[in-house]
Structures are given as structure tokens and as C-alpha cells.
Amino acid sequence: YILIFVCKMLLLLYMYVRWCLSYHNTVILHNQGSLKICSKSIIFEPDDQNEPILKIPLKDCKRIEALEENEMALSDFLYGNAVSPYRYLRGERIVIFQLDIPKKTEDVVQTLLQLHRASCLDKLGDQTAMVCIHKHTRTIQLLKYAFLFVYSFQCVSESPHMDCEAEMITPLVTNPGHVCITDDNLYFQPLNSYPDSVVQIGLRSIRRIYKRRHGLRPLGLEVFCTENDLCSDIYLKFYNTKDRDELYYYIATFLENHITEQTAESYMLLWQRGHISNYQYLLHLNNLADRSVNDLSQYPVFPWVIDDYSSPQLDLLNPASFRDLSKPVGALNTERLERLLDRYRDMPEPRFMYGSHYSSPGYVLFYLVRVAPEHMLCLQNGRYDHADRMFNSVGETWKNCLEGGTDFKELIPEFYGTDCSFLKNMLNLNLGRRQGGGQVGDVELPPWASDADDFLQKMRAALESQHVSEHLHEWIDLIFGYKQKGSEAVAAHNVFHPLTYEGGIDCDSIEDPDQKIAMLTQILEFGQTPRQLFTTPHPQRITPHFHNISSGTSNSTSMESFEDLTEESKKLAWSNMNRLTAQSNHKIHKEAVTGIAVTSNGASVFTTSQDSTLKMFSKESSALQRSVSFSNMALSSCVMLPEDKTVVCSSWDNNLYFYSIAYGRRQDTLMGHDDAVSQICWRDNQLYTASWDSTVKVWKCMAADISSNKRTQFEPLAELEHEAGVNTIAISPAGTLLASGTKEGTLSVWDLASFSMLHQLSCHSGKIHQVAFSPDSRNILSVGEDSCLKVTDVQTGMLLSTIHAEDEQRCFCWDGNVVLSGGQSGSLLVWDLLSSKVIHSIPAHSGPITCIWMNEQCSSVITGGEDKQIMFWKHQY
């Protein structure tokens, strides 16, 4: 009996001590704040920023219960290890939450119990908030449960077009909710009412909208209400592509008449001609390639451009100061590259050269930890990285990128911006101590930078320098262009893990949820290769080269001054092309006019026509002076030879006719082709003829004086074969290249030194009417039956720009930026290629305009049309 009594007393004592300990380990939260119930934990965020965030893992909870009507208790979890900004609780402790919604406390507890029991939800991660209870909120919002969406429409007359579930994407967080679009506004209602209960964007305020990849899947949509590529107004991720596309096309249709959509080709043309900076162009390319500051796995990527981070002075005129932009970071160090290639050769398929990417969430936060510490803590489970692995020094980081075995990262836009805060520890963060004992603080800058602002200014100067401008296209080929994938990527040593490329794996086809989540996590954390924007070599930027006039003789100085004056007069003429005014019009043919040739003094105008005649018109007397018939078939074109003594005409009867102006008769006939001759050109004593027999022939004139009253001897030099009839040709201003356009829409570029083809591309969907080189010979403009104007880069053969006209354009003149064209409507159109718009329309002929001529000073224009007329035009200043 005594033993039993002692045991009972000991038991009572134990229970009393246990009750006392429990009481003293009870925590009652009196701080105002928000309680967020997630899939794997409960997070309490106090309104007082000096108080730490309280995070309680659900897996450690053994008892969850409702106490009074407004209290909820969690007990039997481990306590210890507080790391700002999160306090992880470990040990036996009770936390009591006093809710502002007492009638719903039981519902919250039941939800917690369901989450606690649902082991499958353990796989989701803490990024998806399931319940959010705010101190000012009187409703509970539950994912996968009943949810009442009440949108605060701006106007009672608004009519909803569609609504669906979606997520708002911000760095490292996906916020689920509901999206709705009306005829005036776009609404997004987050489940947790953060950052607002409803996000509202007026459709008329939207400037741009882009489809996005998220996790390499076509589910994203980003909306911009400003021209700032680094700041969007909302980034949405949908649960299926159909909903995303429906919303996109609704907004795009609404915006069609309000904004102009820009393409990679249009931005390229702006950049190539110096209308936008290197920095702006790279931002545009990143934007078009699905890179966004809201998605750290696809953050905008910028290149390292400087190689010298140790000299006291930075010499931007010395090429040795710059990094080789033709190689990826991993290929800059030859010894390291050899080791990587040895591993690559021994690797089974699928093979890759680099085990890490040049852009990933970890690398982005490596640079931005001083301004976004919460993101790094979120990414690394509440801890900063080791102090020696932090972004401590620009020079050390570049050195590690050159020598490290797994470090191939590029830079981010902030290195070329104006905000230097990411280089300074302005928040006084405790980022740890390095092995040498030094505290991690501000980033150590190169010796040539006096401070952070000076560092960014010199980085911007380097990015916009002439050396980088001349080589930036090589880096674009690696990141956004044709060297991103395939055999070109292998040859350029630019091959990354297959999971970083779009189409590398179809996550939707994976049925195992664990494997699917693991794959998505790997894609999001490892980094993603940008969407490929170019499949052919990117053209080089046109950079100005300045000449030292004072170093030449006075004669050369005067000649250059005269050339400068001529160029200024040309610029003035083209800038006033919308002031072109008709001087006179004359009906001199019985059929459509096909060609115009003018003497150097502009006094005599020669025209050919489908009525098979060549006619000479005097501009001074406004009278027809001569009419010559060579054949019973149409004449297709004409050209004036040097010294204004001979006109050459091409005919549909396969022949070429030489007309002597001095003797007033046909001087010679050349039987040149097996089908109609469509166009002729003359350059440097050589005649170029295009024919519908699918050839272009080059003829060498053997006569010393072609204007003499003797038969002219021509020796064939070359025959350029095509796959279809050639309808038009043009010679470059330097006389080194020839462009040809066929009846099937193929554009070809030929080297006249070797008579070899440089490029060939299917440019138009129908006959090409005319091609012409730009004055600098860098681009070719073509017009065709498909009513398109297309600009092609001569160096790469890449199509730079496509402009769709309302009607078919038949002929044109251009200065590289502005186009004067004539088409089916009979009007002359003035185009601005940079904006891809018609800036002026000038009524002209009563039928289609078939040919156009412009003098060297660009001050006088003559047009011919199917209305059988020629018209004379002048600028009115």
C-alpha cells in the first residue's frame, strides 16, 4: 500500500510539473499582423517591421485545436534557432493565435488539420499561399474550396469577356488568384488579397503585351503600361495555354489600333542605324526572348564587355581592354575549355559542355543580395550564402568566371544602369565574415573606378564604345541567335544542359507527380536559355568612322567639303520628300511606260514602253522630239551610257538594242538571251542583263568608244544561273555586288569579283518587281506581288524587316531609311522604314505606277505609269 501511494504521489507531481512547464512555454501573440496558412507551414507576419516573422512547420505540429471562439492553439513542436527574418520554432511550445474573425476559427482549424493530414500537399512547397487572414479581412479565402469573386468594376456598364484562374508571378513567388477581362479593364484578384484586394489595369493604358514562357512552358503573359522594359505592371501565369492565348488575343485586338508592335527585326534595324543604344537594344532583345525581372529563372542577361579590372586607368580605345564577345564565357579560357571538351567527348548523349548556366536565380541574387536580401533568404532556406562565396569584388568575380570550373555567369542590366545601390550594403546587412576576417560590406570596385557611380558610368561607356558596337552582334549570335542551338552551337562551344532549352522536355507528359515537380524545380533553379530570336547571322552595327580632313591637301579638303555639301543636300531632299509636287505630266505612249533614262544635264528624257517604242522627250520645250521602234514586241527597260551618247534598250524579243543619240538611229543589236530580257544595268564598261530564261549575263564591252558609229563588240564574262525567271537586278554603289529578284520571289546576292552566290532566300511569295541597294551597300530593299517591302542585310543574308502595304508596290527609290514608292493605286507613298509606316501619300497617276527615276542630288523625280504618262516632280521648300 505504501508503494502504491508513493507511485500515485509521484504521478501527480509529474503531471503538475508538466502543467507548469506547458503554461510557461505558452506564447500568446498580441502583435497585429497577417496569418498566412501555406501548404507546409504557418507564417505570421507582424505589422511591426522590427518584429521577426514567425514560421511554424506543420509537419512538427502534434495538436491543432480551437480554444475560445477567437483563439487557435498549436502545440508540441520543436523550438530553437532563430534566423532573421524567419524564426523557426523548435522544442515543446504552445502558440496561441487570437483571430479577428472568431466565427471562422473552427473553419481555419479544420483547414489546418486537412493540410496536416494531406501528405500529398507536402510536395507543393511553401510558395503557394492557401489561406491568408488579414487583421482588416472578414473573409477566409481557401484555394480549392468555395471562393466568391466579386470584382469592383470601374463602371457599371463594363461587360466581362472572360475570367479564369491564374497566378501572378513575382520573384520567387507565385500568387494564385482569378483574372477577369472586360471591354475596358483587366482585373486580377489574388486569393490572399496581396498586394491589393484587386489589381486593376485599364486596357487603354497598356503599351505592350508579351506572351511568356514560364518553366519552358507557354503559360505566361506580361503586361506593360510604360516603355520601361525592366518594369512591367503585371506578370500572369495561366494553367493552360488556351486561357493565356484567349486573353492575349483579346488585348492584342483591342490594342491593334492604339500601338505599333515591334519585332526583333524592327529593333535590329533601329539599332543597326544607331537610333537606339546598345543598352536599349539588349533590353528589347531580352524582352522579346521572354526574359523578365519578375522571373528570376529568366532574368535579363547582359554581357561582360570589359576584360581589365586591375589597371588604374581604363582605356576604352585599346581592344585589349575588352572581352572577346565572339565566345561564351566558358570558352574564354583555353585551358579550361580543353578540360571541358575532354569531358564533353566522353559524355553519353545528351551531351553538354557546361554543367551550369550563364543566368540562373542563384546568379541573379548573387549580384542583388544587398538590395533584395529577402529573395536570397527565401532561395536558401533563411540563410545567406557563405561569406567567401558572396559578391565581394568585381575583379574577383570576373577572375572566377574565367578560371572557375563551374562558373560561367554573365551580367545583369543593373551593371549598365544608373542605380548603384546593389553595389553598396546600404541596409547594413550582416552578410558574415570572410576567412581573412573581414566583414562583407560594399562590393570592391576596380582601381579605375573612383566610386560606385563612376564604375557604372564607365561600364555604360564601355558598352556603348565603338569596339563593343562593332562586335556586339557576335555575342547576340550566341545568346539569342543562330549559335544558340544545333551544330553552330557545338562549333562555338556554346552547349548547355538540354533542360535549359525550350523543347528539351515536355513536362506535361510526365505522369509521376514527384518526377514532374523535380523536373520543374530543376528547370526553374538551373536557369533557362532565352527564346531564339534569330536563325541566321546577326548583322553588324553601322559605326561611324571619322576622317581627319586637316591631314590632307587643300584639294582633297575642298573635294571632301563638296561631297559633304552634296550629302547634306541629299539629306535635305529626303527629309522633304513629302513636299514633292508635280510640275507637269505628258501622255507620250500608247501603252504602259516601262523605263526612264535621262541625260546628265536633265534636258532629254528617254522612255520605253510596252508599245515597243523608245521616245525622246525634251524637258525644256515640253515636246516629244523622237520616236523609234526596234521590234514588234514590248521594250522592258532602258539605260543611259556614259557621255550621254547611247541608250540601251531591253526587249521581250530576247534582244538588246543600242540607240545612238548623236546619229538618231539604231547602232547595234545584241541577241543575248533565250527569253524576254526583263532589265539591264551598266557599270564600269560592263553590261548586266536579266532575263526570264532564269539567267543574268555579264558582258564586257570591247570597244574603245561605244558611241562611235560602229557595231559594238561584247564578250560574255559570266552567266549567273537561277531557278526561275529573273525579273529585276541591281548593282551596289561600289560595283562589287549584284542583287537579283525572280518571278517566284527569290532574292539572290552575288559577288561580282568571283561571280559566286553569297546569299539566297525566299523573300517574297510572288514576283519581285524591283530590288535596290542602300547607299552604303549594307542593305537591300525589295518590293513584290505580295504587297510587302522587305529589307535584307547584305552581310548575312538575313531578313531584317517586313512591311505590309495596303496595295502592291511596283517601283521605288530609297536612301536607306526613307522610301519613295509607286504602286497599284497610282499614288506615290513616302515610307519611314524605322516606324514601318507611310508618312505621306501623294496622288499621282490614274493607274499603277510602273517606273520611277531620281537624279543623283535626289532633287528631281520622274515617274511613268500604266496610264501611258510621264510626270515630272520637284520639291517645294
TrEMBL record:
Residues 155-252 form the BEACH-type PH domain. The keyword Repeat applies. It comes from the Eukaryota. WD repeats lie at residues 670-700, 719-760, 761-802, 815-841, 842-877. Keywords: Repeat, WD repeat. Residues 256-541 form the BEACH domain. SUPFAM superfamilies: BEACH domain (SSF81837), PH domain-like (SSF50729), WD40 repeat-like (SSF50978). It holds the Pfam family WD40. The keyword Repeat applies. PROSITE patterns: BEACH, PH_BEACH, WD_REPEATS_2, WD_REPEATS_REGION. This is Neutral sphingomyelinase activation associated factor. It comes from Astyanax mexicanus (Blind cave fish).
